[in-house]
């Protein structure tokens, strides 16, 4: 008996096709084996593909599994945004509860046409030792002098881990020359699956931060726009007193993707309680580029 799945190509964190971060979305994924999901993710060739599955209990509306061309990922922000853009196109709802490896995530449809993903704050990991940091910087083609001295080089996250590196400005992001093999090897040594470089002094108007991210260890040399890493960035900035922590909320705009010709924008909102982050919310738009049906 033949099996049929619906495939979508979606650009996330953007309102324009062919910009932002591309993701595959596969509906009807319950008919696929793990091996078939991995093969499809490799064939579609995006950084990440979201496989949408029906709920398995009454506490959520759907399940999603994420695959890079190389391996399964715990959670992917831009692919979540892409999946909900597709689902809302088929059946509009004010919000959906999504279950995955990292737990339950609430995704709300916004009046602007975008979507917001609310999560628990990420785990705060260790600050790199000097020798480790020097190896990372050598593999990125930058030096200690290029780093923002107010920003510790710290690993953030648990199931998905990123090393956050603050740099002095967009000119440093422009001159980075990543050695992908070396960075991939260092990932295993330091315990970070990727490297998120950011500046709080962007040269682009209308935003608060600019970033680049490299994840060769999971098959993504440079990720155009990462929602998950921006949520990590928000919690990191609050932890180190680098953003206002008075009141109940903090909001900032981050941009990424300029260096790979796919600019995109992420809005980050932090819910605070006595200065501590209670939850993070990343939001943005997504555009369906095309869709297809595949018979297996």
Task: Note the main attributes of this structure.
296 residues; alpha+beta; Diaminopimelate Epimerase, Chain A, domain 1; 2 domains; 18-stranded mixed beta sheet; 6 helices; 22% helix
Q: Would you kindly provide a written description of the structure presented here, covering whatever features stand out?
A:
It is a single chain. The protein is an alpha+beta fold and 296 residues long. It has two domains: 4-119 and 285-295, Roll (Diaminopimelate Epimerase, Chain A, domain 1), CATH 3.10.310; 124-282, Diaminopimelate Epimerase, Chain A, domain 1, CATH 3.10.310. Helices cover 22% and strands 39% of the residues. The chain is built from six helices and 18 strands. The longest helix is centred in the first third of the chain and has 14 residues, at 77-90.
Summarize the structure in short.
With 296 residues, this protein is an alpha+beta fold. The protein has 6 helices and 18 strands. The mean pLDDT is 95.
CATH superfamily of the largest domain: Diaminopimelate Epimerase, Chain A, domain 1
Strand fraction equals 35-45%
Quantity of strands, as a count: 18
Could you give the order of the helices and strands?
A: EEHEEEHEEEEHEEHHEEEHEEEE
Largest sheet report: 18 strands, mixed
Q: Mean pLDDT, nearest integer?
A: 95
- Extract low-pLDDT stretches: none
Which percent bin holds the helix content?
Answer: 10-25%
């Amino acid at each position: 008996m033949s099996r049929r799945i619906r495939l979508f190509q979606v650009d996330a964190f953007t309102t324009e096709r062919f910009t932002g971060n591309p993701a595959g979305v596969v509906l009807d994924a319950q008919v696929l084996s793990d091996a078939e999901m991995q093969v499809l993710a490799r064939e579609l060739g995006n950084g990440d593909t979201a496989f949408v599955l029906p709920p398995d209990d009454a506490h959520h509306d759907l399940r999603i599994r994420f695959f890079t061309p190389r391996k399964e990922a715990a959670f992917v922000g831009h692919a979540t945004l892409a999946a909900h853009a597709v689902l809302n196109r088929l059946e509009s709802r004010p919000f959906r509860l999504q279950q995955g490896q990292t737990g339950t995530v609430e995704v709300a449809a916004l009046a602007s046409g975008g979507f917001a993903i609310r999560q628990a704050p990420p785990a705060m990991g260790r600050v790199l030792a000097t020798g480790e940091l020097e190896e990372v910087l050598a593999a990125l083609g930058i030096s200690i002098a290029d780093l923002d001295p107010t920003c510790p080089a710290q690993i953030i996250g648990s199931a998905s881990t990123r090393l956050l590196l603050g740099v002095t400005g967009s000119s440093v992001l422009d001159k980075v020359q990543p050695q992908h093999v070396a960075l991939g090897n260092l990932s295993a040594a330091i315990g970070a699956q990727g490297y998120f470089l950011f500046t709080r002094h962007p040269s682009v108007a209308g935003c608060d931060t600019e970033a680049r991210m490299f994840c060769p260890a999971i098959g993504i040399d440079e990720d155009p726009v990462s929602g998950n890493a921006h949520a990590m960035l928000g919690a990191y900035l609050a932890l180190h007193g680098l953003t206002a922590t008075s009141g109940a909320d903090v909001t900032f705009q981050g941009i990424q993707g300029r260096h790979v010709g796919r600019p995109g924008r992420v809005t980050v909102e932090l819910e605070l309680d006595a200065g501590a982050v209670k939850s993070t919310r990343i939001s943005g738009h997504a555009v369906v580029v095309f869709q297809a049906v595949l018979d297996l």
